[in-house]
Amino acid sequence: MPPPLPITADLDVPDARPEVVHALLTDIAAWRLWSPHVASVAPDHGTVRGGQTVSTRAFFSPAVTPMHVDWVRPGEGMGWHSRAAGHRLTYENRVEPLPRGGTRIAFSARVDGPAAGLVTALAAPISRLGMRRRMTRLARLALLVQRQAAGAGPAGG
Q: What pLDDT score was predicted for residue 103?
């Protein structure tokens, strides 16, 4: 049986600068702002880097999940993996400049293991919904940061 396809979602944000999106994506303290399921993270500050392990806990789970950061590339995003129930979960959060300006935010998740096809089929709808929610929040946060940096304030004026 071939391995399941990754779960993917992307969002084009014409007014968001890639470097701002990337900075928020890799700023550990910002994770709880754009990733609403994260109840706690340790360490709780700093810029994530390849080779680092960051522990997160979702609001719906008493368990802490170690996230092993596989790569971080300036302006491109990051990838990491975790393990659960005999499966490896591999994630990528990418930042891509759009040809006419702005940013494409692209998230993907892949499950490898004995029941990967079943797990992927069951998890895909809710996972994709969660990805879209996180990308939308990340985009809004990037636009807010840009407005504040320009002196416009939170409401744009």
A: 98
